[in-house]
Structures are given as structure tokens and as C-alpha cells.
Queue: 3 jobs
Job 1
Amino acid sequence: MTAERMAVAFGRVLRGAGMRVPLDSVVTFVQCLDAVGITDRNRVYWAAHSALVRRPEDREAFNVAFAVFWERLSAGDDPETIGAESLTLAVDAEDGDGSGEANDDPAVTLRFSATETLRSKDFADYTTDELAEAQRLMARLRFAGSPRQSQRLSPSRTRTARVDVRRTVRSSFAHLGEPVRREWREPSEKLRRLVVLLDVSGSMEPYARAFLRFMHAAMVGRQRVEAFTLGTRLTRVTRELTHRDPDKALERASRQVADWSGGTRIGECLRNFNDRWGVRGLARGAIVVVLSDGWDRGNPEMLGEQMHRLARVAHRVVWVNPLKVTPGYAPLARGMAAALPHVDAFVEGHSLAALEHLTAVIHDDARVDARSMQSARSMQRTGS
Amino acid sequence: MQQVRDALAQAGYLADEGLATAVFLSLSLKRPLLLEGEAGVGKTELAKVLATLRGSELIRLQCYEGIDASQAVYDWDYSRQLLHLRAAEASGEAAGKDTARLESELYDERFLVRRALLRAIEPRNGAAPVLLVDEIDRADDEFEAYLLEVLSDFQITVPEIGTYRANEIPVVVLTSNRTRDLHDALKRRCLYHWVEHPGFEREVDIVRLRVPQVHERLARQVAGAVERLRSMQLYKPPGVAETIDWATALGTLGVTQLDEATVRATLGTVLKYREDHERVTDQGVAELIKHAFERSTLHG
């Protein structure tokens, strides 16, 4: 067997297991195999790892796929047939893994039935027309972070404190080195990163899907939005949601989310988020929007602690609670009460109008701030 | 591969098989190596060691938000250009020369300020340098796109002078802390390796190699304690760098084995969050030391 055949076959196995394997990576893999040979399992493993894995999330799927592939190969199978067959094997193995992990929580649906759940439970209260209309309206909302000063300097028309030496000297050459006109620079503006954390637990069910559409509308065409879902586990859906076609994007995202309409462990998910993404840099200076009703089966202390951690690195934390609009609502959910002290703005999110208000809160910081803050504080008083 | 591993070890870097393979492949395929992993697992260190190993220069480009071509590739020394003009003027040369010639003089190589990327691919005698692009995730997308171009062709064009092309492709190491996703295009250019915390035995070896003044027993205890700390769900689990710091601190204090008072006094070298301190002291320093002792004798 040649390195080429091995590389192509294994590339197909990985694609079958859901990894992205572009052709040039396969070519790189062939080159790597030429360098290390194709007989030693460990060498082939690490060569494949260097050439084909691009993110740590993929390593688990990669390991399973490689184990299956190598086993079949050493059993003397033709690599080309492995491509098709072991694909199912690899996926099965991964699936089994997932259910094992989820065993402690019976409410968790398995990865591959998630799409079905999504289809069968379309927007409970919306008709098809309303849904389409809502989608259109959401797409029109300018859901973007507020601008902040960037470190990057750009040319300025007016006089500032910083001389643009490069342009001044450049233009002076036209006058034999006489700096006739001075040029200036000023810091440019950059939109703050927006991080959206969506609670997909059972109690959020009527809203979660509307929010997911909202998140998609927010993300299309904009770079600096990151999306995660919280449930029994944390799932990053940024990549899935960036697909332009809303239906495709939603389908992909919901396939990615294994714990759709399951239980809630917001505190734990947040810790995960803080550890792996947020505190490391993703949430630093960002506007973090949490879409959740605050019902948490986990430990409220943990939620409070993690919200505190998040609040310390984020520019602002906005909590959107669809229940807030209910008359006489007080944040009695223990999780909500624990989180509130660390929230900069507490807003409602049950309707399109409320989402419009949310965009205003996010985009135009300070003014709306005071008001929401006040209400958050009074809520807290009634709540505790 | 084993040679790469041995060579790295001789230069003071203990790599596991995966990393050694990645380095070996990056060297033989002449592809950039992208390293990701927790802070303090030795990503940057690897580039430094590679430079020592090859006896070549290490060129480090620390990325930050807003970094642009004039800070990463080249810039003109404007004040010297102006000075040159003035000098020409004062000596009356300017009058004699035509403007075009004077101008071409201004864009001479001697007024070119070479920044890291240009220095890395500039033709040179001797071994190609090691280019370390540190924390690439801090730079913005625009810069990443530019970097991709440089890493594909290994040539840079300065319009006023011409094109610089590397006569030997430099060894390129990129590191990222994953504060954001890098573009797939850049990742595809590179070989990828996720650097893990080392296992117990390898960490002991690292400590012994980097902090030779501490006794083996202490090294084993420190590695055992650190292993325990990493399992405690801390905000910032200690990296290898912290282990080395801790061992060095203990060595400086002349300690030969862990005890509660010294651990309390030196915990600041390993744990960098108040909350982590509290968690560890709440669960008991004695407990930690007990585990460390058990671990250190297990394979001894």
C-alpha cells in the first residue's frame, strides 16, 4: 500500500467522523508519511495528528477514527473499503461515548436525534408566516457590540496629539523635504466582541429556538460575535451559525448541541466557558449576553462565583430573561438571584420588541444602562 | 524522530513523542509549526531551544492588537531621511542633483528599518533563523492574512527597493492561546500540535534538568504536588513554568523536602489567583503534601 492511498482513505474516514479535512491537508499528510514511513503505528498516528487535526475539540473523534482505521488496516483490509465502512464504526463509537457521558442525565437527547427534536417542535406559538416575518425582522436588527477605541492608529483629518511621521515625511518629499503640512493620526474605533451564551434547557424551550434564530441573524456577516449554548454541557456553535442560510445554520447548530431541552447546569457550563474560553481572552473587554431564565439545577453558589469571574473580565454582562416580563416576577430562581449582583443590565427577552430593546442596550451602552441597572438592583432587593 | 527528541533534550527541552514528531516533520517538510496549549506548557520555550539547537538566530515577533506591517515587516527611518535631505541641502548638493535622484537616494536600504518578518526572510549567510510568531491570536484578522501570505511564499516586497526572498526557508513556530479561532487558511499552512501538561515522570525529568540544584526527592515531590493541583479544578492550573519556578524557589530556600510551612510560604509561585489559594488551603495543605509524598515514592 502506498502513502497516498493510506492518506486519502484516512482523510475520508475523518470526514465521515465529522471533521473538516481539506485536500491540501491530505497532501501534507502524504508528505509527512513520506518522512516517517507507514509501518510504525505511533509515527503514523503523530504524523496524521500534526497534519490533519486543527483544533483540540477534534482530537477525540480523531483518536477513535484512527484506532478503527489502524485496526482494520492491520487486519489486512483494503484501505479503500475502510473509508466507507469504518465511517459508521467511528461514528458509532463516538455516539456511544456521548451517551455514556450523558447517562447521569436522562433528559439529554442523543446527538443525532437533536435535529428531529428541533423539527418536530417548531416555534410553539408562531405560525409559519409569523416565523418568517420574525426572521426578517431579526435580520434587520443591528445586533453588534458598542465601539471602543482600538490600538490601531488611522489617519486623522483633524489635529490630534499624534503626528503621523510617515505621511508627513512622505508629503514633504514633494517640497524637497520641507514638511509644509503636518499629518495626524488618531486611534481608530473597533466594535467590541459580542459573546452570546444561550440556555437551551427544558425550561427555556419556548424561547431557545427563537433566540437561536436571533443569534444567527446577529452573526451573519459579522466577524466579532461568538455563540455558545448552555445546558448540561457547554457547546460552541459559532462555526455552525456562521452559515448564511438560516435553516442550514440552525440545523447544523442544533445537531451540534447534544443537550437540547435537557437539564440545566448553568454554573458548571459557565465555569467551563470561563476556563476554556472566556477568561483566557474571548470575554475580555467583550459584551457578554446571557439568554437564560436562571433556573439552574446545579449549585447557585457556583453560578454566582462564575458570574463574578466573568464580570471581572467582560466589559459588560447583559442578562436577558424571558420571564422578566411576567407581572410580579421576582428573580426567585436561586441561580438568577445568585447571578444578578454581577450583571450590568437585566432585560426582558420574550418578544421581538424586547429583542429590539436588547439591541439598543447592547449597542448604545451608557444611556440605557442606568435604567436597566436600576431595575436590576430593585429586582435584587425584592428577590432577596 | 528519536534524534530530534535527543537533541531537544540535550538543549534542555524534554518533548514527548507527539511534539518531537511534529517538530521533526516541521523541519523536514519546511512547514510552519502551530502550537496551541495552556499557558506555561513551554510553547515559546520550544522555539528558543530550536534556535540554540540549530545555532541560528531567534527572531521573535510578539503579536498584539493593532500590530501592522510597519511594526512587523519594515518601516522607513523618517528622521534619518529628513536629515539626509537637510544635509544634501546644506552642502548645496540638492541644487545640483535632480529631484528624482535625490528621492531614490532616500529610499536606500540604509534607511530601511527591518522588523522581525523581513529580518527572518532576508538572505543571509549561515543557518536560517528561527522565527517565533508569539500569541498570533492577539493580532487581528488583517495581520493574520498578511502573515499567511508571507508564510506561503517566504518573500516580501518593498516597493521602493525590490523583493526579498529567503535563500533558505526559516524555521517558523507560531503559538496561540486560543483566545479566538485562527483562520482555516493559516492553520492549513501549518502543522499543528496541541501541547499538553507533561505526565508525572516527564515533569520530574524536566525539573531535574532545569533546576539541577534540587534533590531528586524534592523534584518528585514537587511534581507530585503539581499533579495534584492540576486535578483540583483551579482557575489557573499550574503549568510547567510554574513547576520550575516553584522548584527553583524551594531550592533557593535550601529545602530538601516539602513541609507545610514552606508550601504555604511558596504557594504564590504556583498559584496566581486568590481563589485558587483559598481552594488549596481549604482542602488542606497537609493533604496536598501527603499526596505528593505518596506519588513521589510510587515509582521511585
Job 2
Amino acid sequence: MSSAKNFSFFVLVARNLQNRPYRNIAMVLSFAIIAGTLFSAQYLAGGARQSLETGMDMMGADILVVPDKYAAASQAVILTGEISTFFFNDTGFEKISQIPGVAKASPEIYIATLYGQACCAGPVQIIAIDPGSDFTIATWLKENPGVTMGKDDIIVGSAISGDIGSDLLFYGHTFHIVGRLARTGMGLDMAVFTRIEDAYTMANESGVKAVRKLTIPPGMVSAVLVRVEPGTSPAGISDEIKQRVPGTKTMTPNGLLSTISGQLGAITSLLYGSTIAVTLISIPLLGSISAMVAHEKKKEIAILHALGATKSFIVRLMMAESFSLASLGALTGIGIAVLILVGFQDFIAFTLRIPFTIPSPLMIVAYAGSALLLSIVIGGIASLYPAYLINHSEPYETMRKGES
Amino acid sequence: MITVNSVTKTFGEGTSEIRAVDTVDLEVQPGEFIIIMGRSGSGKSTLLGMLAGLIRPTAGTIRIKGLDINTLNDNQIAELRSQEIGFVFQFSGLIPTVTALENVLIPTLFCPNGPGNRETALGLLKQVGVADRADAYPGTLSSGEMKRVAIARALINKPSLLIADEPTGDLDIATESEIMALFRQLNSEGITIIMVTHNPDLIPCATRTYRMSQGRLKREPDSPSCPGEQRTRDENTDLR
């Protein structure tokens, strides 16, 4: 396509684009909106999915058992970090541990801290674990061998303020940060993990040290995390738990995923719907601009024909201009979308009430690639009309109709 | 060089059929300067379009350097045009988005192994007297300057045939004389020229003159002097 004559096909394309700024800006903006919207939809859906997978992986549980009437609250604790305190009788825990197929069961106590008070660092979800049976923090501790969780030590979620080695005050009790979990984008990022016995100590002291006493009913826990034996169906164990321990609700990672997927589905439907709407609105706009371009360029194209250009050269020229505009527009749209989505990711996740973490670079490239591809396909469609006109025009007659 | 045999071109069908060119015969030898006169709508531009392979004849044959262009496909005709034919349009026909120099270089895109390059383009712009406007866009050029750039562009691939459709139609007398002097110079260097014009004053520039009327071509008598001849001899010393 290029000639070694200091003037090439690409220079001609570039000059044509540079010197028709207004028309081209309109096309670039259209492509930017299409690509930016599609990229945003994929990015948000992918980020939510990745967040859930990371968070569930970190919890390491196959089943989460919670009091039936606090199912929504416990789901909110895990997914979106809405703090809550609730309990059910841990006699259930004993029964759950004994169900055949249950490999491990570990109780947890969920405590919402006070905020706006001198006694407390802020509104966080304390999750008290049993170090003897826990497999959530235990897994993390195995991966971080230099860290131990002793008396009054806490491991904090990624969104909790405070450096490792510093102290945090909850209900007037001082805790010492010894570790920080990786970001999941879920409610776990706003949780503080401590030992159950330290939680009891904190509760006992709260009557004196805090503005409001915390009561943890003896022998009661908030949730039980269950890991099933290999080859055992979590669904079957869930049914067994519900049968043996009435008043419980079981949640599985897949169940949570489908819950979120439903929630996410509405959002992604909205986003993908927006993409389709934007595309549909843009097509007439792009069609009008393309028609203008076609008529405007008919004479130029006839001149190129007369100078020796083949029809395939002209079609390549039109396609190259269209693809360049589509690519430029798509990259602009994707770039702006990335800036907005990364810059305001917490705000967006909070507003949409979805767990969210930045998708992997590979996924971002894939989303950007598909948005770019869509724009290029639309660009190709937009250049069909000019290409049709070119192949059905009488170049010499066109050329003679007025001055260029 | 060119043999036109009973060429006819009609537009439309039935009662609305227009016979733009009617059974035209023409033989052009290498190095000739042919002028075709005629009123608007007489069919002369259609004939030029057919000679350049831009319009397919309805009947008859056109041979350029022995090749029957009716038998060539679009790409072969385009290749022939890019290598053998330089075209100067009635209007400048410059591409507005590229500079004068780049306009001259455009035909090199279609003839990548041809002789044209940046240096020859600059040389041609100098030859036609607009070297100082090489980086100017067409919108900033005068009509005369645009026409000169268009002539330089027609010559970039060193064609053996130059086809010009009323190249001086919109120019003042002085510029017209300069352009004609340039054409004479190019013709004296061996380029065959076929030019359409309304202006009878240009007839003497030609080796043969024809008049076209209602699609028919008829030879005109020769005439002794050509505008710009004096200028060619005295002033255009930098012409090749």
C-alpha cells in the first residue's frame, strides 16, 4: 500500500483525517460513546464477578450457615460490608460438625462496632473466629508464615485504616494490627478479624470502657462456615443442615454468586442495554455523516480514479479512514472510561451496591479489544455506503460536476 | 499511439437516449498535439473520458499503444492510466486535504515502480512555476497556481499521453498563454497531447484541430500562430 516515494497511502489517509476535523470529531465522538459504554458494562460486570470469586476463595467455605432471619444481614456483611450484629444458638454448631460429609466447621461471631464515639475507631464489622477450627484466616496465616494471631491481635481487611503494628480501639478495647488481607472488593475488605476469646474480653470490658455495653450471649455464634469433604455435594449437606438445625439458612458461594448475578444482571442488562441504545442512536448519526462523506468525496474519488487509482485502492482508502476514526474513537472512549471507572471505582461499587475489584489486566485488554472490535465493525458498516457509491458512480461525470 | 474506430457513446435508453459521441474515428500519432473544439454538450469531454478509459464506449474500439482498452478490466485500465496517461481536468481537480507537493505525488501511489518521487515532484513544480507554493494547500492557491499544480501532477509518472479537458477554461489571458506555452514545451519534448477547448485562439497551438458537433468529429483547417509562443521562446527558459 505504501510507496517509497516519501508519500504513502497512510499519509493520504492521515491528511484526509486531519483536514476534515469537524466531521471527523463527530464520528470519533460517536465511536467513543459506543466503545466507552460497552467497555464500562464489561468492566463492571467482570470486576464484580472477579470480586466475588476472590472473596469466596478467601473465605474458603463451601457453605455458610446463618440464622434464617438474619440471612439478608449476613449476606450484606459478606458482600457489601454493611455492618451487623446477630447471633444464633451454637448448639447448632455442634450438630453441624457431626453431619457426615462435613470436613470442617468453624463458628464466627459478627459484631458491628460503635462509631462516632471516643471508644471506637470507626464503623467496622468485627468477625471473631475460633483459631482452633477456623479455615479462613488460617489459610491466610499459612501464606504469611511470619504472622501469628495472638491475644488482642487483629487481621484487617484491605479497606480498614491503620498500619500494621498500629492499634485500633473497639468498645474501649485496644487491638493490635498484625496483618492485612488482600483486596476482594467485597464486605470482607471492611472487616476486622479477631479471636472469639478476645471478642468476649472486649464485650466484658465494654460496660466500663465503651459508651454502650456489648453483649455476646454465652455460647452463641453468628455463623458457621462449613467445608465439605472432597466428593461431597455442598447442596446435599446444606439440605441436611437445614433439616437437623431448624431456623438456619445456608448459603453457598454459587448461591451467593447467583444472588449477585441476579443483582448484577439488572445492572449489566442496563449497561448492555445502554450500549445497544447508544449504538442504535449512533448508527443513523454515523450513517448521515457517512452519506455526507460519500457525497463530499465522490468528486475526489473520481479524480483519484482518473489519476490511475483502482477501485480496490479507493475502497481501501475509505475503509482505512473509517477504521482509523473507529479506532481513534474507541481508544478515546475506552481511555475515558478507564479514567472514570478506576478513579471512581469505590463510589460506583457503593452506588450500584455490588462487590467490585479491578479486573485483571488480561481481562481489561479483552474488554478493550471487544469494544474496539465492535467500533471497527460499525466503522466498516458505516463505510459500506460510501464504498457502494464509489463502485456505482460514473467517475468522469462526477468529476465534471463543479470544482473541488 | 491512439486509434479510435467508429466509437459511439449513448446515455439513457429508448426515447430518452442521448448519443453523446457518434461513430467517431481518430488516429493520433506519437508527439502530436490534437485540439478538439466544440460547444458545451457536443460530446468532446465524453470522447476524452473514453480516451482515458474513464468511460466505456457503447460501440467501437479504442486502442492505446496497440491495447484495445475495451478488453481491459478496471484494474488494467487504471494501471494503463497511471503509467501512460496524464490527465488535466477542466477544474483543477486537486485534492483539498493534501498540499500542492503531495497532490503532485498522489499518482505515484498508483505507479509504485514509476519514475515519480519527491525530487521529481519538486522539479515539476519548479518547471510549472509554483515551487514556492509546494507546501500550500489548494484552498490557498489561485486558479492559475492550481492549474499549474494539476499539470505537474499529470506529468509525475512521465506519461506518453497528456489529456487535457479545457485546461485554460477558467484562467485569465496571461495565465492561459503561460499554460499553453507549457503545453507546447511538453509537446516539443515528445509528449502526445489531446486537449479539449472552447477557445479558437488556441487552435494554432495544435498539429491538428478537430471540431465536435452533436457527437460527430470533423477536422478543422490549421492556423499559423499560437498564443504564448513568444513567451515560450523568450521567458520559459526553465522548462524542460
Job 3
Amino acid sequence: MSTYPTPQRHHILSVLVQNKAGVLARVASLFARRGYNIFSLAVAPTEDPQFSRITIVVDVEGTTLEQIVKQLFKLIEVVRISELDPQKSVERELFMATVRTDGENRGQIVELANIFEAKVLAVGVDALTLSLEGSPEKLDDFEELLRGYGIVELQRTGRIALPKLDREAHSRAVKGKAS
Amino acid sequence: MSKKMSGASSLVQSLESAGVDVMFGLPGGAILPAYDPIFDSKIRHILVRHEQGAGHAATGYAQVTGRVGVCIATSGPGATNLVTPLADAAMDSVPMVAITGQVPSVAIGTDAFQEADIRGITMPFTKHNYLITDPKDIPRAIAEAFYIAGSGRPGPVLVDIAKDALQKETEFVYPKEVSLPGYHPQVDPENQAIKDAAALIAQSAKPVFYVGGGVIKANASKELMQLAELVGAPVVTTLMALGSFPDSHPQHLGMPGMHGTVAAVTALQKADLLITLGARFDDRVTGKLSTFAVNAKVIHADIDPAEIGKNRYADVPVVGDLKRTIAALIPAVKAEFAKNQPDLAPWIASMNKLRATYPLGYELPKDGSLSPQYVIERLSAITGPDAIYVAGVGQHQMWSSQYWHFDEPYTWVNSGGLGTMGFSVPAAIGAKVGRPDKTVWAIDGDGCFQMTAQELITASISNIPIKVGILNNSYLGMVRQWQEMFYGERYSEVDLGGGIPDFVKWAEAMGCVGIRVDSPEEVAPAIERANSINDRPVVVDFRVEEFEKVFPMVAAGASNDDIILPPSQNERREYLR
């Protein structure tokens, strides 16, 4: 079973904010007081240290995405908000899990990790720690398969996303550079 | 040009550069460095008796002048005492800048003496806020705070400054302009939206102007008058909009909402178009939202795009400054009317019949005791529409909205959205400071008065001669009314203990003139005497009938269709169908 909500209810907002103390608290406080649901949230500085990008997956139920965007935009330090259409964006997430192993099934787990191109980060007597970077859907599948072995600890980063590049515009830009 | 000085001097010079002429405050440890240069500043500082008073006074000042009101307090309890006025100002879109001292930056986060995270506390109800720990950031923060507070949809901004930032030496450079990459309020409405709105107006047989406080904030009363007379539709003005359109105008149907006039409430219910200008479909106006104006299309004009579509779908959203929006609508509507002007006569006739059938009215108590509505009516008639009227929250506020006569904007101050008891005395002080040329009357309930009355000491000592009329029924009257109507007359914790305190003695102890009024014939002489005193504040204790209720009324959560009429009008109910 996927841990993600149905696509109709879940939207990715890419929020460019001024990189100032407290800006994450403002965003989180707004969601809390207006009763909006954050499904996942990732925040880090951008290529310009004056700005950070917050990638929020919102679970839209009982409130409109439009209202969430409008209220977010009222925050003075929010500079730009883009809604990323999953069809037109690239998404990545990082996953780490410690899985119990009795020694006999260690090979199976490592084989599973190899199939998914996951990494083995640490090996213990009765456990393995694995990491996987990829699309959230791929991570969902991996997580589901690992559950059968017994997950001791699990940490996911929440997704980050950027718009897919427009191929024509991109190829023009590449041409421009070449000439 | 830069000059070396302390952060505190930089703060005071920044406030002077922002054009501040008065601020309301109370000093304390963390803000102490700022009070030294305040001692020499040309800015008038009014020393309040409680920081809440400073905040509401800043609001009163802002609401009658249209300028940014300023209050200042120390860290910890000083700052938290500003929380209520800041929340109040956020709800009513009041331009305000609050300055607070903070513990020294090294002590922040250590639970130091008088430390409170006021920036964190006030995030939900400030338009923006700052924590300043470096003195060089002070001028920019002040410049930005005033720009943010006064532009777009106005609101409160808090600037919290660590004590060491006030003490350290810095260079003072006041920015010529502010640059905020994430803040660009849209002032000019889009042409297509104006055209769509005008087209909808020209297609509607039953339009109503639903006018909110945004019209006053945008100083757009003149434009509203032109547009309203051009369209000819009935006008309703919300609690926050009283005075934006004259009560005396034949198109004016009064205030809509929980205690609005039958005509105003019903006009919205039966309209086919709401021309919504700077209003926000508050629950006190709409009643049960799903039954509100079900046949109406909606034009919603507001400077804040987040208000549009928040509570009610807008067929035509118009984002922009209302003065410009209404001015743009006038020629657009004229152009549409040249092609097709709907006949509003049947609609206007039906609304006029409603107004005539269900006027605001009350019955005088049979035992000769004093009617609170009568007091309000006489006060308005004797003092006139030029004065400024300030109300607290409760029955007296609603009677004031109903029986005071408003013809001009900026003459009515009240706590609308937050409903803050204790608002009126300090807000009246701020209003009088902002408009010393005007007579300022606060009307208060005896419950409200006891929350902030000590600010009358401020008024006496700082020569701010306001007038306060207490509608004293010895009850938390509005709560008592709800208990009578909805809780089987079980009067739980609403009796304020009749006779204590003695408001006349209390007033005199605070340096005011105190007058007691027990009977209807004493009302006019007391008001005239109060109006003639201008060298000190006056408090008139109107001992009014205890069990009077506010009508009409739409019960909380009920539909506007189920408006409760005054008992004397019940037999006329069939006209509403």
C-alpha cells in the first residue's frame, strides 16, 4: 500500500523564500493555524544564498489549493510560488532504513537492494542500513518490500522537485552557447 | 549622509524619518535605552498605564487619521500586553507599528528575566514582524515596517529589538526606498475585471452594494458615492464601513449582519448581484454561509487577493486598490448603461417597503427607567455627525452602530473582527490625539469600562479631553442576552454587582468630571454639559434598564432568513416572505 495520498489531493508547491531566520516557522505556523495539511516538507538554500526553496507536498482536503497559495503569498518573505505538476516536473527523495536480518535472509535483502540500486550503508550482526535515492514512487515500492523483513528505523527526506526542462528552449540555449 | 550614534538614537531618528508625530507606550528594562533619546525627541510620547492601552490608542489614532499608529513597550510582559491590540489590529486591517525591547541578544533563548518570544507569539496576527539584534539593521527595519503596515491591505507590524542592539554604536542611514522582493501589492485593477464587473452590473435587476471597511481604508467614499448614484442600487455598510456612505442617503439601507437592519440583511439575501467592495463575507454578516444570498452573483473587489474566494465564490474577482477600482468602474458602467440600463425600480420599491415596514426601533421602558437606545439617539442628535464615536464590544456597540448617525468616514472607531472588550477608552484617547479638533465620545458598557478604565488617568494627565458614556446595566449585557434567549434565562456569571464600583467617584479619582444619569430627562443636560467641558475628560454613568436586548438579531450559526425581529414587529413577519 502506498503511503502517499491519491494524486488528486496532493500537490507540490515549490516556494522560493528569502533566506531569513524564522521563515520556516512562518510557513509552518500559517499551515497550522489555517488547518492546512503538510504531507512532506524539504527546505534548503538555493544557488543564490539570499534565497531558500521550500518544497511542500500539500494534502488538499477541505480547502482549495488556490487559497493556500494566496495565504502563503501574503507572507512578506515568500518571493515566488510555483505549483509543480507531477507530469511536468522531476522529483527526487532520499530514503534510509535499518532492516532486521537473521543472517539467513541477508543475501535476499542485499539482492533486493541491488535490484533497486540502493546502497548498503552499514552492516551489523543482525541488521543492515540501506539508502535509496529516487522518485518517491520507487521509494514507496522499496519500502513495501523491505517491510516483510522488519524495518527497525526509517527516515525519508520528503520530496524535492524542479520543473522539467522544456526541450526546445533548452536545445536552443545549448545551440546559443555553441555558436 | 551617515552619522554615528547609539542604536537607540538610530531607532528614534528612524521613527522621526518615518514621519511619526506621536507614540503611545510604557518603558521598562529592555527598552530603556530607547527612552533616553525619546526624552529629547520631537515625537510626542504618551505614557499609558498598561501596554494594552498603548496598542488600542495606536489603533484609534490610525482609524481616524488613516496614518500608521505607533506603540512601544518593553520585553516580556510589556510585549505580551500588546498581543491583544495587535490581534485586534490584524483583524480590522489597522496600520500599526509596534516597537518592543528584547533581552540582550546573548540572553535570547535562555529564559532570561522578562524574556518572551514576541516575534514567535505574534507571527499569526502581524502582517510581518522583525527581531533585530544588529543595530545597523534598525533603520531599514523601521522603514520597511512603516511601508508594510500602511500599504496594500494595512496591518500591524512588530519590530522587536534586542537591548544590546539599542546600546551599541552604529551609523544611522535611513533608506530612501525599501525593496522587498516578496511584497508587491497589486493596486491597479485589471481592465478585463473592470469590464466584466460593469457588464454584470448592467445585467442585474436586483443589485446591492455590499460595502466593507476597505472603502474607508482606501479613502474611497467620494468614488463610492458617484458609483452608487450612477447604478442606483441599495447600499449596505458593514460594521467596519459605517460612515463610508451617508446614513442619510436614500439608497442606504443600513448595516447588514447579526444585528443589522431587516432591510440590509434581506437585501443581501434577495439580491441577484452583490457588488462587494472591501468586505470579506465575515460570518457575522453572512450568517449560515450556505444559505447566504443564494441567488446572487458576486463581484468581489479587494486589495487582498486571499479574501477573494475565501468564504464565498466570486463570479468576478477584482484585485486592486478600491479607490482606483471604483474610479475605473464608473466610466465602465456608464459605457454599459449606454447600451443597456436595467430597470431597478421594482427592486428599490420592494427594499423601501422593507425599510418602512421594519425600521430600527425600541420601546421605552414602562417604568420610566432609562432606555440605552434613547441615550445613544440623544447623544448623536445633540453632538452631531462631525464628532468621532468610539465603541467597545457588546450591546452598547451594536446600539451605537444602529442609533448613531454617520455621514462621514473616519468618524467611527470600534473593534470589529476580534471583538475586544476594553477597546473604547484607550482607542478614544488615540482618536482624540489624532484629531484634537474633533469631539470624541466613547460609549462603553460597564463590563468593558472596567477592563481598561485606568487609561482615563493617561487622558487626564496628558490633557486628552475625551468623553465617555457608560451604558451601565450592571450586566455583561450581550452575554446576558444570549443566556436569556438561548440558555433558558440561566444567568451564569454575568451580574456585575449593581452599584459597585461608583463610576462617578472613580472618574473623579482619575481626574475626570463624573456625571450620573438615572432618568430620561437628565440625558440631554448631561450630554450638553459633557460637550461643554474641554479641559479634562468626562465620564457619564448612564444607569440604563437592565434587561433591554439588541434587535433585530440573527442567532449565531442561523440563516439570515431566520432573522429575529423586535417583539413589537413580530406581527409583520409575513412581509419578509
